[in-house]
Amino acid sequence: MTLRAVVRSVSELCITIGVLIVLFVVYLLYWTGIRADNASDGEIERLQDSWAQGPVGQDGSKGSNGSEDTANTAAGDPGSRAYEDGKSFAVMYIPRFGRDWSRPVLQNTAEGTLRKGLGHYPRTSRLGEKGNFAVAGHRRTYGDPFKDFPALRPGDPVVVTDGRTWYTYTVTRRPYRTLPSDTGVLDTVPEPLDPAAAPFREAGRYLTLTTCDPEWGSSHRLIAWARLDGTRPAAEGKPAALRR
């Protein structure tokens, strides 16, 4: 084989590899995002259609009402259905991420689940209950739900609804960066490896959000904590945080 033929073969191989890399990047950045957005929208539509029929508990009773801006009054409804593994049960809104940002919350944090929306850590508390309601989401790919996670600031509202009640949580501090092994961040009263980062000192109704860091890696985790500040019956419309 002549030198010219070798050079031509190597050049063609490099071009082929380059094309494959570009196609992979397109798939990673765009196609997974399109599929995730479609899946997320589908989950929200399914939930809203279900809620339009009237949310009921296992005993057939309607959900209980509360009042807006009543701090720490929400409690899990003992008549409510258990969360079904891999199924959506709530919708989360974070105004800091955009006026139209919303994602379904599904039960478990398996990879297949996180491709449809956000995932609730099964060992943590239920929405609105006393304890720590913890939720994970992708930082990048599959719709980039938590792409802007570092932008969270103290005082930012995080609103979640299960079709009966709106729960308004308030972020208490800037995101905390830690290692994947720092599982104490999910405790009933979060206990991170760094004691100085502990957001709360006593039991309450809390929300923990987690995602990967750096933006295109997973060597660390970013954690945001929030405290439940108010509830509002779904029948009374969106809470003030979503009407701004």
Brief synopsis:
The chain has 244 residues and is of the alpha+beta class. Helix content is 22%, strand content 24%.
Task: Describe the overall structure.
- By secondary structure, this protein is α+β, with helices and mostly antiparallel strands.
- It has one domain: Sortase, Chain: A.
- It contains 2 helices and 9 strands, in the order H-E-E-H-E-E-E-E-E-E-E.
- The protein has helices at 3-52, 111-114, and strands at residues 88-93, 102-107, 118-120, 131-136, 157-161, 165-171, 176-178, 205-213, 220-233.
- It has an 8-stranded mixed barrel.
- It is globular.
- Mean pLDDT is 85; it is low at 56-79.
Q: Helical percent range?
A: 10-25%
Gross morphology = globular
At the fold tier of CATH, the topology name is: Sortase, Chain: A
Q: What is Rg? A: 21 Å
- Taking strands numbered 1, 2, ... along the chain, how are they ordered across the largest sheet? 1-2-3-4-8-9-6-5
In CATH terms, the superfamily is Sortase
Mean pLDDT: 85
Tally of extended strands? 9
Question: What can be said about the biggest beta sheet?
Answer: 8 strands, mixed, barrel
Topology overview:
Elements: H1 3-52, E1 88-93, E2 102-107, H2 111-114, E3 118-120, E4 131-136, E5 157-161, E6 165-171, E7 176-178, E8 205-213, E9 220-233
Parallel strand pairs: 2-3, 4-8
Antiparallel strand pairs: 1-2, 1-5, 3-4, 5-6, 6-9, 7-9, 8-9
Main traits of this protein?
9 strands, eight-stranded mixed β-barrel, Sortase, Chain: A, 24% strand, globular, 2 helices, single chain, 244 residues, alpha+beta
